[in-house]
Design goal:
The protein has about 100 residues and is mainly α. The protein has 3 helices and 2 strands.
Length: about 100
């Protein structure tokens, strides 16, 4: 039995170099993307707020708009922090309001 050698012939060296470079760049960006994503998730600080009669998410967001940002962004963050589905909050419920918005 004789072993047969398989020879690979490179036809287009530029295409090979380009493909290997692209694969290397994608691999590095995937690794750094997952590492950087974990660093960005800093711990948030919250304020507890008990909902009173007549409160809406809009009024609560306006009261706690310390950074003077868009109120809709604060409402989104409040809904996300408290897993609220709708736009209503029950009177007497204590909700968390993120401070680092």
């Amino acid at each position: 039995m004789t072993k047969r050698r398989i020879r690979i012939r490179i036809v287009n060296k530029k295409r090979l170099v380009f493909s290997l470079t692209l694969i290397a760049i994608l691999a590095v960006s995937c690794v750094f993307g997952t590492v950087m994503g974990k660093e960005e998730q800093a711990e948030r600080t919250y304020v507890e707020y008990t909902v009173t009669s007549g409160d809406t998410l809009w009024s609560i967001a306006q009261k706690h708009n310390y950074a003077k940002t868009d109120v809709r962004e604060i409402i989104y963050n409040i809904k996300e922090a408290n897993a609220l589905v709708g736009s209503t909050v029950e009177q007497g419920r204590t909700i968390l309001i993120p401070l680092d918005m």
